[in-house]
Specification:
alpha/beta, Aspartate Aminotransferase, domain 2, seven-stranded mixed beta sheet, globular
Length: 408
């Protein structure tokens, strides 16, 4: 075997690894130009793209309706508003997720409470969720991290027992299926990001869905200034523009076929590295009745078993032409915006009972998530046009570095 590229050897892969997303079809350009030439760039003022996208996305998800908004963070905020989360409430959120999963709770004036994860899936641990429930718990956020659906049977059983709304954060999981239902329509309300790197990628945007028409109506009113002439709801203007809607309609039609490729790539890679020590696919195997989407293919790394620090291992694999990266997340319970408790919801009288006598944040609150993010988690993009050549190069690079770890 050739020497490690990091130490002067030849890399496994010399070609550039495919980027995601890629925008290169005339269909996309024509859709945007057509929306521009219509003279109506606002869906609320004569535009046709946003109403059409909302109808098409709802049908695709199996929802009663959908609401297009300007970002994934806005979608989360809107979803929480639609299930009446507000001042004095608590929302349980897994520590392993992008921070807007929890800042959206603060935006509603409520208090985020962080739950630990199941390391085998990197998703919300249902028993950690159960242990954190109080009389003030209004909702739980089930984040389908990396396109891997949460154990929704367990989460829904606990939530239904306590009258808690289940908000699905589907930012990584467009088209994932949990026991016959698309994610977003398993719990009470779902929020999607369609930001630049997401599976459905348009630059910026978000969508809110629900099987409950009443929740959809509340979401629509909230994201449209509360529809102040018709309701008593107060809300911001979070609407998506027509150009983004036109692009989303084109790209939505490709998601299912692209997800087939992601799943095949994930299975191929999982099998190719199954015999290697110190690196374990997350999850280790596909679950019955669950179709993942693999926004990231995730590895759990054991530095002690390999004998190489995690960042050094990543550098060695990257030198082989494979963009394996240390995860970009930090444990939310350690982030200053939460741990310092300086922002306005923490100063509200109505929220003080949630804070008194409890350690909500800081080191040790979510030990499994903390260990996973600081010691174990690697991420790799396996989106199309990645295929067998790229996946086999990944496996070869990881195997090469593990085999020669003693040289590092």
């Amino acid at each position: 075997m050739d020497a490690l590229a990091l130490l002067g050897g030849n890399p496994v892969r010399k070609q550039a690894y495919p980027e995601w997303p890629f925008y290169e079809t005339d269909e996309e350009l024509q859709a945007i130009v057509g929306a521009f030439q219509s003279g109506h760039l606002c869906g609320a003022a004569g535009g046709e793209q946003i109403p059409a996208l909302e109808a098409e996305f709802a049908a695709w998800c199996g929802a009663a309706g959908s609401v297009a908004v300007n970002s994934g963070s806005s979608a989360l905020q809107t979803a929480l508003a639609a299930v009446d989360v507000g001042v004095g409430d608590e929302v349980i959120v897994p520590s392993y997720t992008y921070y807007s999963s929890a800042t959206s709770v603060l935006d509603r004036g409520a208090i985020p409470v962080f739950a630990d994860i199941d390391r085998a899936t990197a998703n919300l641990d249902p028993e950690s969720f159960r242990a954190l429930i109080t009389q003030r718990t209004k909702a739980v956020m089930a984040v389908h991290a990396n396109g891997i659906p949460v154990d929704m049977d367990a989460v829904l059983a606990i939530a239904n027992e306590h009258g808690i709304a289940v908000v699905e954060d589907c930012s990584h999981s467009h088209g994932a299926v949990y026991k016959g239902k698309r994610v977003g329509c398993v719990g009470h309300v779902g929020a999607f990001s369609i930001q630049h790197k997401k599976i459905l990628s348009v630059g910026e945007g978000g969508l809110v869905v629900s099987r409950d028409a009443g929740i959809v109506a509340k979401a629509r009113a909230y994201a449209n200034l509360g529809e102040g002439t018709k309701t008593g709801i107060l809300g911001p203007n979070l609407r998506m523009g027509e150009l983004h809607g036109a692009l989303a309609r084109v790209r939505l039609g490709r998601v299912d076929a692209e997800n087939v490729i992601r799943r095949a790539n994930a299975q191929m890679l999982r099998e190719a590295i199954a015999d290697l020590p110190g690196v374990h696919a997350v999850p280790a195997a596909r679950r019955e009745g669950v179709d993942e989407t693999y926004y990231n293919f995730t590895l759990d790394y054991d530095a002690q078993e390999i004998g190489v620090p995690r960042r050094r291992f990543a550098e060695a694999v990257q030198a082989e032409g494979v963009p394996l990266r240390v995860n970009g997340y930090s444990p939310l319970n350690l982030m200053p915006v939460f741990e310092n408790m300086d922002v306005w919801p923490y100063r509200l009288t109505e929220n003080q009972p949630s804070l008194e006598g409890r350690k909500l944040y800081g080191e040790g609150v979510c030990p499994v998530a903390e260990a996973f993010m600081t010691e174990g988690n690697f991420e790799l993009k396996i989106h199309p046009p990645c295929g067998e050549a790229e996946i086999m190069a990944v496996a070869e690079a990881v195997r090469k570095v593990i085999t020669q770890a003693g040289n590092l």
